């Protein structure tokens, strides 16, 4: 049975060109990049060339790229690092951070831990499309706001946030409260609030120019862009105050101790180069597949579960799968939908048995499979009792219209089966 993989938001295969670029550094070029001998210098050169290549694609300086072991570590470094740096000079004050309600757990759990340590946290709500409320953000900013963290594109529902508009709100606040102008350059913790974005899911398809986005820090992961697992990065502008999480070697200019993963870093750079090269053409292709899938899903009827729609005449209606997230301003490869009266985890397992790899939510959140904090936030915003769980399809470079059609065919059969069971009950 042919397997059809529709979970590229969780992991992507390593591109053959990436594997080829990495291969020499597994064997012959094995040196420690901190060593002063020929082998070490060669490894150091490979790391710095990769750093320069990544910086070029992000529109920043090479020394503004800090390699980490994952995107999770990068997000932790952004939150704990900036709050730690601020606390060094504000011993008696309570720091404040703002994070959106639909962040990846790498950000949410970091924020919760900081909250338990006395940091004041504002949880920024979203509307029914999953877009943050800029008015709430503006009102939430204070003199003690250290950091705002809003992800570029959501890993579950694919909604793309107005990052540039968020940056404008923060810049305007700093201009009014910090007197930040072109004539007066603010430094150190006076630069707060800093703006961090988790761009892990955006890197394949969205503009990754940090100057155009207006962010201070950006998180990425190679494993989501057809690169190797086990390497991420935190891009941060020069002068950004940051307390390191890992100490013991002074690596990465003292911002992240630990011997650099040379082959993975080399692969990261090649993966980003390829992703940026393919971005426009691949986005266009995947948008067609995404919209085809959403259109076909909307045609499906037949299940009646605990969630029913009632029209003004009092007749019970079923509107089929509900599409989660903004249907236009979303990642080209993302389709997320919910079905009333359906156990989505069981449905995903049924589809897996039929040869389709799909997800119910983020692969990084293993608890409470039938509840998504992202969908819970959307339901709170739209005031409905639609399910707080769903099915996520995330397409990739290998996905074809034939693959999507095959999924839809099997999915329709599952829907008919469930409908028949419900009728008998």
From TrEMBL:
Keywords: Iron, Iron-sulfur, Metal-binding, Pyridoxal phosphate, Transferase. Residues 4-172, 194-407 form the Aminotransferase class V domain. GO terms for molecular function: cysteine desulfurase activity; iron-sulfur cluster binding; metal ion binding. Its cofactor is pyridoxal 5'-phosphate. Coiled coil: none annotated. InterPro entries: Aminotrans_V_dom, Cysteine_dSase, PyrdxlP-dep_Trfase, PyrdxlP-dep_Trfase_major, PyrdxlP-dep_Trfase_small. It catalyses: (sulfur carrier)-H + L-cysteine = (sulfur carrier)-SH + L-alanine. It holds the Pfam family Aminotran_5. Belongs to the class-V pyridoxal-phosphate-dependent aminotransferase family. NifS/IscS subfamily. This is Aminotransferase class V domain-containing protein.
């Amino acid at each position: 049975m042919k397997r059809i993989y529709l979970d590229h938001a969780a992991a992507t295969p390593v591109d053959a060109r990436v594997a080829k670029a990495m291969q020499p550094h597994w064997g012959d070029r094995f040196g420690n990049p901190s060593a002063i001998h020929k082998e070490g210098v060669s490894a150091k050169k490979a790391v710095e060339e990769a750093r320069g290549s990544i910086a070029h694609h992000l529109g920043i300086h090479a020394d503004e790229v800090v390699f980490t072991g994952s995107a999770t570590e990068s997000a932790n470094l952004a939150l704990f690092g900036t709050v730690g740096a601020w606390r060094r000079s504000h011993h008696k004050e309570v720091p404040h951070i703002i994070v959106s309600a639909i962040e990846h757990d790498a950000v949410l759990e970091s924020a919760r831990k900081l909250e338990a340590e006395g940091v004041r946290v504002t949880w920024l709500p979203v509307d029914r499309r999953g877009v943050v409320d800029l008015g709430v953000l503006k009102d939430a900013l204070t003199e003690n706001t250290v950091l705002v963290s809003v992800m570029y594109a959501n890993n579950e529902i694919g909604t793309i946030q107005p990052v540039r508009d968020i940056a404008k709100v923060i810049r305007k606040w700093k201009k009014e409260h910090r007197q930040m102008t072109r004539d007066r350059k603010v430094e150190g913790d006076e630069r707060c609030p800093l703006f961090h974005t988790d761009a892990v899911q955006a890197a394949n398809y969205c503009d990754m120019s940090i100057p155009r986005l207006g962010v201070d820090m950006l998180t990425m992961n190679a494993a989501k862009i057809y690169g190797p697992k086990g390497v991420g990065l935190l891009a941060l502008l020069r002068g950004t105050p940051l307390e390191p999480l890992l100490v013991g070697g002074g690596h990465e200019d003292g911002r992240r101790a630990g011997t650099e993963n040379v082959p993975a870093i080399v692969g990261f750079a090649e993966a980003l180069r390829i992703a940026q090269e393919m971005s426009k053409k691949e986005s266009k292709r995947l948008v067609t597949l995404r919209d085809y899938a959403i259109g076909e899903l909307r045609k499906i009827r037949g299940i009646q579960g605990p969630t029913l729609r009632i029209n003004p005449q009092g007749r019970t209606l079923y509107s089929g799968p509900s599409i989660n997230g903004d249907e236009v301003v979303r990642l080209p490869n993302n389709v997320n939908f919910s079905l009333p009266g359906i156990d989505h985890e069981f449905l995903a397992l049924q589809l897996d048995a039929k040869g389709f790899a799909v997800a119910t939510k983020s692969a990084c959140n293993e608890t409470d499979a039938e509840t998504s904090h992202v969908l819970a936030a959307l339901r709170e915003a739209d005031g409905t009792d639609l399910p707080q769980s769903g099915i996520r399809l995330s397409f990739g470079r290998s996905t074809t219209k034939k693959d999507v059609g095959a999924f839809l065919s099997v999915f329709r059969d599952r829907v008919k089966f469930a409908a028949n069971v419900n009728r008998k009950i």
